[in-house]
C-alpha cells in the first residue's frame, strides 16, 4: 500500500491552492500546503487504524459467540494475547521486513532492513519528518500493525476448541513477525508482485487469504474436534451465544470502513476524499450483498434462514470487496459481495464433507472469498489482468502454506499442538486456564 500513494501525495500538493497567506510568509523549509497534506494523511491513518483496531474486538466477540461455552475464556484469552504479541513482534521485526523502502537484500523479494521500527523524534519539524510529503512514521506504523494483527485473528477461530494456548501463540509470533510481513513486502513494500502488476488494494490476498491459508494448514495438521464427524456425518456443535456473534459481526463491519477506507493512503485532496467516500459506500454495499445472498440461499436450501451463515455472508462480502473497493460501482460491489455470500453457504458444508473442521467458518470467508475478491478486481479495474491476479494468489498461497506447515509441524514435534482428549471434552477454559466464562451455568 505504502509505496503506491507517494505519487498521489504529489498530485494532492499540486491540486491544493497556496495557503501561505500569513503576512511574513511561511518559515524557510515549510510549505503550508504540504503541511496540510501531511496532517490529513496522518489523521487518515490514525482514524483508520483505530477502526481496524476495533475489529480485534469484533473477532473476539464473533469467536466467543461461535464456540461452545466451555471454550469461551480460551478464545478471549487468545485474542487478547495475539493482538499484543503482534504489536510487539511487528515492531521488532515485521515493519522493516515489510517496508524496505528500496533497500532489498534480494531485489524485490527480501528486505535489506532488519531490526525494530523507529519513530520520528518528538515534536518534529518539516525538515525532520521521515517523509514530509506523505505522513508521520508513527501513524503509518500504527495503521499497518492493525492489518498484521487481523491476519492472526483469522487463524484463531478456525483452530478453536482443541489447540493448546502456547503453541498457538508461538505460531502467532512467527506469522506476525515473518510470514505476513515477508509476503506483504512483495506487494505493498514495492516487491516483485507490485512490479509485476498484481493488484490488491486493501488485502483480500495479502491479509485475508494469508490468514486463511495459515488456518487451513493448521486445521489439516491439527485435525477435527472430537465427535465432530461420525460415520460419515457431520455432528452440529452449536455456539454458545449468537448475540455475541452478531455483535462481533457488526463491529467487524464497522471496522472494515477503516480497513478499506484507510487503504486509500491519502486524504490531502478533494479527489482523495471523494475516493474514500466511494470506498465506504462500496464496502457497505458488498457486506449487505453477502448477507442478503446468504439469507435468501439458506431459506431456499434449508427452508429456514441460518443466522451463522448470514453473519459469515456479510463478512464474506467484506473480504471479497477488499481487493478493489474503489473502482466498482454500487451495483457491482453488491454483486461481488453477494457471490461471496453464496461461496460461504456452499463452502462450509463442502469443508465438512472433507472433514476439515473450521469452527467459525474463517476458511470460506477469508480464504475462498479472498481468492474470489482478488480475481474480481478484473471486473472493474482496467489495469488488472486475470493471469497476474492468479499468479499473485498462487505465489502467496504456496509460500504461506509451506511456511505455516513448517511451523505447525515443528510445534507438533516439539511442544505438541493439541490438548489431551479429556481436556478437550471437558473444555479448554478449565483445562488450560482454570477459569470459566459462565461459572454460574456450569455443572458443579
Automatic annotation (TrEMBL):
UniProt entry tagged with the keyword Transcription: no
Presence of the UniProt keyword Lipoprotein in the record: no
Signal sequence, renumbered to the chain: 1-22
Keywords tagged on the record: Ammonia transport, Membrane, Signal, Transmembrane, Transmembrane helix, Transport
PROSITE patterns membership: AMMONIUM_TRANSP
Transmembrane segments: 38-59, 80-98, 141-160, 165-182, 202-222, 242-259, 279-302, 309-326, 332-352, 359-379, 391-411
Mode of membrane association: Multi-pass membrane protein
Annotated GO CC locations: plasma membrane
A Gene Ontology biological process term: ammonium homeostasis
Gene3D superfamilies: Ammonium transporter AmtB like domains
Chief place of localization: membrane
Subcellular location: Membrane
Domain Ammonium transporter AmtB-like per the UniProt entry, residue ranges: 45-438
Molecular functions (GO terms): ammonium channel activity
Homology family: Belongs to the ammonia transporter channel (TC 1.A.11.2) family.
Protein name listed in UniProt: Ammonium transporter
Organism: Leisingera methylohalidivorans DSM 14336
Lineage: Bacteria, Pseudomonadati, Pseudomonadota, Alphaproteobacteria, Rhodobacterales
Amino acid at each position: 500500500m505504502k509505496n503506491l500513494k507517494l505519487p498521489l501525495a504529489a498530485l494532492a500538493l499540486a491540486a491544493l491552492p497556496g495557503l501561505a497567506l500569513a503576512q511574513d510568509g511561511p518559515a524557510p523549509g515549510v510549505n503550508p500546503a504540504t503541511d496540510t497534506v501531511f496532517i490529513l494523511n496522518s489523521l487518515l491513518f490514525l482514524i483508520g487504524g483505530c477502526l481496524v483496531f476495533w475489529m480485534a474486538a469484533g473477532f473476539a466477540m464473533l469467536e466467543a459467540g461461535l464456540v461452545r461455552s466451555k471454550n469461551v475464556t480460551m478464545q478471549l484469552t487468545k485474542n487478547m494475547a495475539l493482538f499484543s504479541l503482534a504489536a510487539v513482534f511487528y515492531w521488532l521485526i515485521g515493519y522493516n521486513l515489510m517496508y524496505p523502502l528500496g533497500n532489498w537484500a534480494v531485489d524485490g523479494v527480501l528486505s535489506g532492513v532488519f531490526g525494530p521500527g523507529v519513530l520520528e523524534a518528538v515534536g518534529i519539524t518539516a525538515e525532520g519528518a521521515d517523509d514530509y510529503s506523505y505522513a508521520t512514521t508513527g501513524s503509518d506504523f500504527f495503521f499497518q500493525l492493525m492489518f498484521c494483527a487481523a491476519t492472526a485473528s483469522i487463524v484463531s477461530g478456525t483452530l478453536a476448541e482443541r489447540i493448546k494456548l502456547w503453541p498457538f501463540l508461538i505460531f502467532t509470533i512467527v506469522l506476525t513477525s515473518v510470514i505476513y510481513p515477508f509476503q506483504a513486502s512483495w506487494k505493498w513494500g514495492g516487491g516483485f508482485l507490485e512490479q509485476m502488476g498484481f493488484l490488491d488494494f486493501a488485502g483480500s490476498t495479502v491479509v485475508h487469504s494469508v490468514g486463511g491459508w495459515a488456518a487451513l494448514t493448521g486445521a489439516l495438521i491439527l485435525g477435527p474436534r472430537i465427535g465432530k464427524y461420525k460415520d460419515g456425518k457431520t455432528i452440529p456443535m452449536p455456539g454458545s451465544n449468537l448475540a455475541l456473534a452478531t455483535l462481533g459481526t457488526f463491529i467487524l463491519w464497522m471496522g472494515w470502513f477503516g480497513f478499506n477506507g484507510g487503504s486509500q493512503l491519502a486524504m490531502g485532496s478533494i479527489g482523495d476524499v471523494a475516493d474514500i467516500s466511494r470506498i465506504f459506500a462500496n464496502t457497505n454495499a458488498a457486506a449487505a450483498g453477502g448477507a442478503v445472498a446468504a439469507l435468501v440461499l439458506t431459506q431456499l436450501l434449508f427452508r429456514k434462514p441460518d443466522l451463522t451463515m448470514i453473519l459469515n455472508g456479510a463478512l464474506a462480502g467484506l473480504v471479497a470487496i477488499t481487493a478493489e473497493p474503489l473502482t466498482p460501482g454500487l451495483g457491482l460491489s453488491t454483486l461481488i459481495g453477494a457471490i461471496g455470500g453464496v461461496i460461504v453457504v456452499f463452502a462450509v458444508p463442502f469443508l465438512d464433507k472433507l472433514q476439515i473442521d473450521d469452527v467459525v467458518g474463517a476458511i470460506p470467508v477469508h480464504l475462498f472469498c479472498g481468492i474470489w475478491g482478488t480475481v474480481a478486481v478484473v471486473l472493474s479495474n482496467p489495469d488488472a489482468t486475470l493471469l497476474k491476479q492468479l499468479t499473485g494468489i498462487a505465489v502467496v498461497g504456496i509460500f504461506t502454506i509451506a511456511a505455516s506447515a513448517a511451523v505447525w509441524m515443528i510445534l507438533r514435534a516439539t511442544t505438541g499442538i493439541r490438548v489431551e482428549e479429556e481436556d478437550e471434552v471437558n473444555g479448554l477454559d478449565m483445562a488450560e486456564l482454570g477459569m470459566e466464562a459462565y461459572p454460574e451455568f456450569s455443572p458443579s
